[in-house]
Write the structure tokens for this entry.
Amino acid sequence: MIITTERTGDVLVVVSNNPPVNALGHAVRLGLAKAIEEAAADPAVKAVVIRCDGRTFFAGADITEFGKPMQDPQLPEMLEALEASGKPVVAAIHGTALGGGLETALACHYRIAVPSAKMGLPEVKLGILPGAGGTQRLPRVVGAAAALEMIVGGAPIGAKKALDVGLIDRLATEGNLAAEAIAFAQEIADVRPLPRTSEKTAVAEPGVFEAFRAANARKMKGFEAPEACITAIKAAVELPFAEGLEVERGLIKTLVASDQSKAQRHIFFAERAAAKVDGLPADTPLIPVQSVGVIGAGTMGGGIAMNFLSIGIPVTILEMKQEALDRGVATVAKNYANNVKSGRMTQEQADKAVALLKPTLSYDDLGAADLIIEAVFENMDVKKEVFAKLDKVAKAGAILASNTSYLDVDEIAAVTSRPEYVLGMHFFSPANVMKLLEVVRGAKTSDSVLATAMSLAKSIKKIAVVAGVCYGFIGNRMLKPRQDQAGQLILEGAKPSDVDRVFLDFGFPMGPFQLADLAGLDIGWHRDPTRRETVREALCAEGRLGQKSGSGFYDYDEKRQRTPSPVAEKIIAEYAASKGIAQRVISDDEVRERCLYTLVNEGAKVLEEGKAQRASDIDVVWVFGYGWPVYLGGPMKWADQIGLKTVVDGLKRQADRLGPDFTISPLLAAKAEKGETFN
Ligand code: 3H9
């Protein structure tokens, strides 16, 4: 039985038990509808409590039912019946009341929650809006401004804040929710009229919608759902409840069927699928990790260390020279100070984290660490030297990880006497912020070591994806053809700003040349201005090193605002002429096809070689590591949506321009031929 009812005095307690998250699937909706009828029919019942067993109150509609014919009762109708109940209903909230879960609570007459509970309407993240009255009820309870934050922002709020804004009526004692909810129900059993949310008025300050749009324009750019959310909240303010519901219904119908929402729902499940390693038994023993060593105190090493410090794991950080070590430690301290300033953590939390960092110049100090992550210069000889040293000092059973972003993890492992303990943990910069972690499984990496890395990733709030050993793993390997083509396109006549514009219009936060200028064109430059073997070298030779020197592919003003640079364009044209490359007018379509279809093609190769477990893992890498717009679902989902035949046709059209080594992935070609998709 998913929904059960029990009586405590004159209170009917309705309990849901639908693990793992009490999603409001068909059986739950049906059970709740029957319970409401039961309460109405039984004269001995004076009030009702709805609560959930397990780890959480209803975490929303069952997303797996989306896109299929929905069985009655539908959630909106069930909630209307709930709110219309002649007997008061109390929602007793623990865990996360999200989406349809919070909408259920809003349809109840009273809400009580434990202090650790969180409440939110995250539907916008799935490309939809709250479609069971949430856009109409929440503004009536908390006002338009707070509703905009919660519905368009999608982030949940804690129970204490919920009490402050009037979303809940009272706080319960942690661990005593069931009893206190019943006591609350008994207390209000005879209070009339019943406080029905739909009968309240939604308060809106003048200009609140315009101000919200202006403040959030950047975050909302490209997404369809946020504007629909705003329209629905406006309807809550301007229209009677029933008419507002009609507006909400119309909007959710369109959004659920949209490509954007399908893509965002795909990413929701893809993120969870990525955590699962095929063939790895669920009971694989984990290696306890209570201390970490990090080699290299640069930007990367410091960022990696912060992940562990922030969850209370001590880190020993190693550098070659005192000065570099001091600089690295100071940067970590500064980053924590910034976190305090921005309100992301308290001073006490920051102090605790910084105190767990132990700087050292000696490899011997890494001997006790359970996990050691190397983040030194990206060079095979240097990495091998580090791992040979580690093999000598690390204790038996310690995990040895390389943060390499390209190199052969098996070759690195081979210099140790324990390759089964070696794997790649490829963090993305800034490593304390970026969500993605590529976990690179070497040929000999043991199951326990892999499972431990995946579990640890979850603890440090990363989204981990397993990759096989190949040059650049999943992400950087697919980035390469994109970068190569972008570089080639500007030689053939496209302006850097035109190429970047195509990327920005597509939904990327930055184009490849903006990114190059930001990172610095002199990374890896030999510093000899007479040697001009690439466009970057030609630009560096003219002192154009990127943003930091005020010029690169673009010119920059003192506020670092960029403008297309005729000087850079001339340098590029001269370089192209020196290589005998004729310049011509290049269309946006050609830019898209050459840069993005080749990227998808490389993704297909990653998949056919088994370097990624599943297409959706590739999508996760690109959404969380490379700024692929989530509403386009990652490159493989995007290719599925535009049609694999479209991709193959585009690649064939461009084939002559893609270089002598270019080949179409057989997997991509076969799937296109059969009309199949990757996901
Ligand atoms: C909605 O409500 C629409 C309505 O407004 C309108 C209707 C008309 N459905 O995340 P976890 C699965 S839209 C189905 O690893 P955690 C999840 O896939 C919904 N399945 O746990 C995973 O399965 P598996 C609005 C769901 O503790 C398992 O549960 N609500 C759903 O890290 C465990 O999940 C949301 O968007 C679902 N709604 O986090 C909330 N939710 O084990 C979405 C989870 O097979 N959910 N699953 O991989 C979450 O944010 C997190 O799951 C939560 C728990 C915070 C609840």
In short: Residues 20-21, 23, 56, 59-64, 75, 96, 98-100, 103, 122-123, 126, 130-132, 134, 272 surround (S)-3-Hydroxyhexanoyl-CoA (CB under 6 Å). The domain at 494-578 is CATH 1.10.1040.10 (N-(1-d-carboxylethyl)-l-norvaline Dehydrogenase; domain 2). The two ends are 34 Å apart (CA to CA).
